[in-house]
Specification:
The protein has 15 helices and 15 strands. It has about 500 residues and is an alpha+beta fold.
């Protein structure tokens, strides 16, 4: 028997296009042939493309990369799950995180660990200023309003947030004064009408204004408890997190394109931008070489990498009779050398705000599994025999794909000659799959070429094909329990 060609080809591609820790590589078996005809799915009839043509190409590119890949090393095809729909659905599941945290605040003292971060923050923001007298029996609303007015006139604040606002306003006023003086100084300098005395006075005023800004800032930080209030308010302002979620949804809606059937896909940009033209150039070059022409060359080594993979044969019992052997039987016992050029095409989705899922302030309800996270996903990838693995509703999404071109397969049997194999492959009428490649047993010179080289059967394929995908793994959601309990924030003293 033979080494597994899928594993060997995947290893070669994985070495050529390494993944980061939060990515995984999937070999697509069988590969997907790319339409590289002019006026086809990805190329206009002629450049520059007409507006309608360009819009159609963008829709086709969005459709091409909209399917989520199974979390597997080798997959027969993408899933039917849409990246766009899964992403928007995942955004709907995000909620502000209710993490229980300890506090090291010396003023508030120990806080019940059962209280959420939201409750702790609200308790501080609604706490009374120590300068306020102890509460008396509840007054009427009219008396309360008058007392509040008198307290404000005397500079007495009711809550911690009121003092913060007062100090912020004082700093903003000092900042506005400095901005005005600086603007005046710049206008005077540009006009060129300034004396040494005026310049000296201007500089003195600027220094005073700058000193006042610093004083107001320090007053805000120390007496207004700026950093603690900022942190607590960020926790309490739950709407700010949900507003970011809504903004992310709106960005996806703004990127929508609609095809002729009324289906919606989100716009993407592929890098290199001329990836389809590169594929067409390779196909044209293959045809020119097959016609024994040496005048056509459109090599671009900047985007293509040469990949070579040797697959050894381990034939234990040599077979002497070829009469009962199919072509598939023959190639299964061959030593194979496959070479091809590979191009990595990166998928950019400006509307997909992946940072939303990285934010420690967001989570999902405990009964929703969005993603098992990087560590768990990588562990499950290694358990090939495990079935029905639960990877959640949005565990990953494709961020790049690999295109193969100039595909060459050389089959050498330990017993049979290349001519014997040619005779077999040209007499049968079957479709053959080897690794990610598919080809017919007939010798269709327009799309493939079958010949003999140094006693080996050689098959070359004309059409560029997508043979692999790289996917980005989302962080674990819901968050791990140990992450929730160990997360803490030390309030500034």
């Amino acid at each position: 028997m033979q080494q597994n060609p899928n594993n060997k080809i995947r290893e070669a591609l994985f070495s050529a296009f390494s993944c980061t820790n939060d990515q995984y590589f999937t070999l697509s078996v069988p590969s997907a042939t790319i339409d590289i005809k002019s006026s086809g799915s990805f190329l206009p009839l002629k450049a520059p493309a007409a507006k309608d043509e360009l819009n159609e190409i963008r829709i086709n590119e969005a459709m091409l990369v909209d399917s989520i890949l199974p979390v597997e090393k080798i997959s027969p095809s993408p899933t039917k799950k849409s990246v766009l729909r899964s992403y928007v659905s995942a955004l709907d599941m995000l909620v502000p995180r209710q993490t229980n945290i300890p506090t090291t605040d010396p003023v508030l003292g120990p806080v019940d660990s059962s209280k959420s971060k939201y409750e702790q923050a609200m308790k501080f923001l609604q706490s009374k200023d120590p300068t306020v007298a102890p509460e008396r029996p509840k007054p009427s609303d009219r008396d309360l309003h008058r007392a509040k007015q008198r307290a404000q006139e005397q500079g007495i604040q009711s809550f911690a947030i009121d003092k913060y606002v007062q100090k912020q306003a004082a700093w903003s006023e000092a900042r506005a004064k400095w901005d005005y003086l600086r603007s005046q100084a710049l206008e005077t300098r540009d006009a060129g009408s300034r004396s040494a005395m005026v310049e000296s006075m201007r500089q003195t005023e600027l220094k005073r204004a700058q000193a006042e800004i610093h004083e107001r800032w320090m007053d805000w930080v120390v007496n207004g408890d700026k950093f603690r209030v900022d942190y607590c308010f960020a926790v309490v302002d739950r709407d700010s997190i949900m507003a970011r979620v809504e903004n992310a949804k709106q960005a996806a809606r703004d990127a929508l394109l609609t095809n002729n059937d009324g289906d919606e896909f989100a716009r993407v940009s592929l890098d290199p931008e001329n990836w389809a033209q590169e594929c067409q150039n390779r196909a044209i070059g293959w045809t020119a070489r097959s016609d024994n022409s040496t005048t056509y060359s459109l090599e671009n080594p900047e985007v293509w990498k040469k990949i070579s993979c040797n697959i050894k044969s381990n034939l234990d019992a040599p077979i002497m009779d070829t009469s009962n052997l199919s072509f598939n039987d023959l190639i299964a016992s061959c030593a194979v050398v496959t070479t091809f050029s590979a191009m990595l095409v990166t998928i950019n989705r400006p509307w997909l705000h992946s940072e939303m899922f990285q934010d420690v302030e967001v989570d999902v309800p405990g009964d929703v599994v969005l993603s098992p996270g990087t560590t768990r996903t990588k562990d499950l990838l290694e358990i090939e025999a495990l079935k029905d693995r639960d990877f959640g509703r949005f565990p990953a999404y494709p961020s790049a794909f690999v295109v193969a071109a100039d595909i060459m397969l050389k089959f050498k049997h330990p017993r049979f000659s290349g001519q014997d194999m040619v005779n077999t492959v040209t007499t049968e009428n079957i479709r053959v799959t080897y690794g990610p490649w598919e080809f017919t047993s007939g010798n269709d010179q327009s799309t493939q070429k079958i010949d003999i080289e140094e006693g080996s059967l050689r098959i070359s394929l004309q059409a560029p094909q997508i043979i692999g995908w790289i996917s980005d793994i989302l962080p674990q959601l819901p968050r791990a329990e140990d992450e929730k309990t160990t997360f803490s924030y030390a309030y500034p003293s």
